[in-house]
């Protein structure tokens, strides 16, 4: 089912039937996952209580309910069989259209030099890389998100007078997503002025090599997405390696992994920067007005123009797209405000293949499904915020997107998303170089918010079909009564929220992830809160960071047999954990940092799956020997003070 969804999601924007089919399948997967989880929980319960009879009334009832649920899912699948055959025919058509569309997406080295703004530093840097004499061919890659100006920079270099004087031959190849190596090789040979008639692929490569053998050349490979099928190795092996000539290859791509596979050194990777405020303004005014118009003729539009530019976040293609749209509109403040207020919708409406949203959508569509889910989680984070890698990864563990033992893989996911230019690494950890903080360009964030809401994946806006909800300051918590499908409920606000006991918490029986950090309980007592929490039998992640009303964790916490992540950090009045915490056999992460806990409960060695313990307090009577039996422990964060004593006991 998941493989089917991964294929179908690329075409869901084109057909309502595709969207409907995907929504049904997605819900079936969630229901099936609930059944599987319940079976695992039930089996664990039976193992713990071996005295229970195999065919007790309780056992029979559970099996009966499970069978009924499975029948319901099978009935839905049978119902879909009638719609899937025409769907598969449609998918075949879409794939054919996609191939033709991708093969039509091409670039050329032709450009309007007068429209170049803010790229002169990029030009100077790359020219200085190319011009010094070198024996081996120099490979340079320009990496960046869609719409950043990679192709434009390559065009500037390709047409530069010093480059023309340096190289005897220049070749521009537009690669794109669907690689047709024969077309690439023929295009190269044509640009070299050679006849390609009646030549097979091997002969074409040989002809390219012979033509370039006795001359210096510049080869631009624009818009490279993948080299997986070996086309680049064939071409690279066929290029002459003469020491008499100084050759250069320039590659543009959105993926750093592609650059590495093509043999580019780290020192010759160029990352273009977004435009600054002045450059953004210059580019905007150049395209927003006709030649006989100027911004100074419309002073009333200046502020709204600045707001529009601010939303473009320095992305050249976004600025050019929106300014070209405004060029065709009346110079009316109401019209411009309307476009500013509906910024993303306007960019989507101009959804041609060359638009900024279409460009960013291509990057998302190319992601494997494991990365799509992880990226969509970022959509609930506030605008312009730095996102904690630890917070994200722990959420992924709670959702089951990754296993904790795959923690290294999770950090690799973040690095891969950064390499694909969909997130930006703000900070790395000093001690191991792993990603610590990330952020997203506003337009990427806007796009994934739209995708996440369309797929009912997650949102911070009311939607009864949503499966993951972020609580914000403006949200009416009474609306939570209508969110019975929730799998994740997370607080995403810097302001404390009042959690009223009139909310029907029992409806959230599918919750896997619950984050109530910094939440004020109002009329709800700690005991009542934990009575509700302990009824969430599928819960695998609980975070109560910064809850100052919490002094002692109730014993009912021991009922959460599926809990894998438990976080009480920054609860400044929390002094005691109950011994029942030792019954959480699946617990992998326990975080009690910055809590005045006097001692961890005896019997901690029973947590045989614990892999991360944060906040182990050496000044409060805790001893390292208590951790000897935790064979799976890989991360231990110790809390030390001036009175701490580490004894070899």
Tally of DSSP β-strands = 16
**Secondary structure: helix percent:** 40-55%
The whole-number mean of residue pLDDT values reads 85
Task: Strand order, main sheet: write it out.
Answer: 9-10-11-12-13-14-15-16
Main sheet record: 8 strands, parallel
In DSSP terms (H or I, runs of 4 or more residues), the helix count works out at 22
Terminal-residue CA separation: 54 Å
Q: How would you characterize the overall build of this protein?
A:
- The mean pLDDT is 85.
- The chain has helices at residues 2-8, 16-48, 57-80, 84-104, 120-130, 150-158, 161-166, 181-191, 201-212, 231-238, 256-261, 277-288, 302-312, 316-327, 333-341, 343-349, 356-365, 369-376, 389-399, 407-419, 442-454, 526-533; strands at residues 138-143, 169-176, 217-224, 248-253, 269-270, 387-388, 424-428, 435-439, 468-471, 488-491, 513-515, 541-543, 565-567, 589-591, 612-617, 635-639.
- The chain has 22 helices and 16 strands.
- The protein has 649 residues and is an alpha/beta fold.
- Helix content is 40%, strand content 11%.
């Amino acid at each position: 089912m998941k493989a089917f969804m991964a294929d179908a999601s690329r075409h869901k924007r084109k057909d309502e039937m595709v969207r409907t089919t995907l929504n049904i399948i997605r819900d079936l997967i969630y229901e099936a996952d609930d059944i599987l989880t319940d079976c695992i929980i039930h089996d664990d319960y039976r193992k713990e209580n071996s005295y229970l009879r195999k065919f007790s009334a309780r056992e029979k009832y559970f099996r009966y309910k499970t069978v009924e649920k499975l029948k319901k899912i099978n009935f839905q699948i049978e119902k879909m069989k009638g719609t899937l055959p025409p769907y598969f025919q449609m998918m075949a058509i879409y794939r054919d259209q996609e191939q033709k569309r991708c093969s039509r997406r091409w670039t050329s080295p032709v450009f309007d030099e007068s429209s170049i703004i803010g790229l002169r530093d990029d030009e100077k840097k790359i020219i200085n890389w190319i011009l010094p004499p070198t024996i081996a061919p120099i490979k340079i890659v320009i990496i960046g998100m869609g719409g950043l100006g990679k192709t434009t920079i390559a065009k500037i270099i390709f047409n530069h007078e010093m480059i023309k004087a340096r190289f005897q031959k220049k070749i521009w190849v537009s690669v794109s997503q669907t690689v047709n190596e024969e077309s690439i090789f023929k295009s190269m040979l044509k640009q070299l002025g050679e006849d390609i008639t009646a030549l097979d692929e091997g002969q074409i490569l040989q002809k390219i090599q012979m033509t370039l053998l006795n001359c210096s050349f510049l080869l631009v490979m624009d818009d490279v997405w993948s080299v997986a099928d070996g086309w680049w190795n064939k071409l690279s092996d066929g290029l002459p390696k003469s020491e008499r000539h100084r050759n250069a290859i320039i590659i543009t791509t959105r993926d750093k992994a592609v650059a590495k596979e093509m043999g580019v050194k780290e020192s010759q990777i160029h990352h273009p920067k977004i435009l600054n405020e002045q450059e953004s303004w210059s580019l905007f005014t150049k395209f927003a007005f006709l030649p006989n118009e100027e911004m100074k003729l419309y002073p009333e539009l200046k502020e709204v123009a600045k707001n529009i530019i601010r939303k473009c976040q320095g992305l050249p293609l976004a600025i050019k797209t929106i300014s070209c749209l405004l060029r065709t509109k009346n110079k009316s403040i109401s019209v411009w405000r309307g476009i500013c207020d509906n910024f993303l919708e306007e960019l989507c409406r101009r959804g041609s293949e060359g638009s900024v949203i279409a460009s960013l959508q291509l990057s998302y569509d190319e992601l494997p499904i494991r990365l799509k889910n992880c990226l969509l989680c970022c959509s609930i984070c506030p605008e312009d915020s730095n996102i904690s890698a630890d917070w994200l990864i722990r959420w992924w563990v709670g959702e089951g997107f990754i296993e904790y033992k795959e923690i290294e893989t999770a950090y690799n996911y973040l690095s891969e998303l950064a390499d694909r230019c969909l997130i930006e690494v703000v900070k790395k950890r000093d001690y191991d170089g792993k990603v610590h903080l990330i952020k997203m360009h506003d337009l990427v964030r806007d796009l994934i918010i739209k995708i996440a809401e369309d797929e009912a994946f997650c949102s911070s806006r009311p939607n009864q079909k949503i499966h993951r909800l972020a609580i914000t300051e403006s949200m009416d918590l009474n609306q939570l009564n209508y969110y019975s499908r929730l799998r994740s409920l997370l607080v995403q606000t810097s302001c404390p929220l009042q959690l009223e006991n009139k909310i029907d918490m029992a409806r959230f029986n599918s919750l896997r992830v619950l984050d109530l950090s910094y939440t004020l309980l109002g009329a709800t007592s700690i005991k009542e809160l934990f009575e509700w929490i302990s009824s969430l039998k599928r819960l695998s992640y609980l975070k109560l960071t910064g809850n100052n009303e919490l002094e002692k964790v109730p014993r009912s916490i021991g009922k959460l047999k599926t809990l894998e992540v438990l976080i009480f950090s920054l609860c400044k009045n929390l002094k005691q954990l109950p011994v029942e915490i030792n019954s959480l056999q699946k617990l992998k992460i326990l975080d009690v940092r910055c809590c005045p806990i006097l001692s961890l409960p005896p019997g901690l060695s029973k947590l045989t799956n614990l892999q991360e313990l944060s906040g182990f307090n050496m000044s409060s009577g805790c001893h390292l020997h208590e951790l000897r039996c935790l064979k799976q422990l890989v991360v231990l964060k110790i809390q030390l003070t001036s009175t701490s004593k580490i004894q070899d006991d």
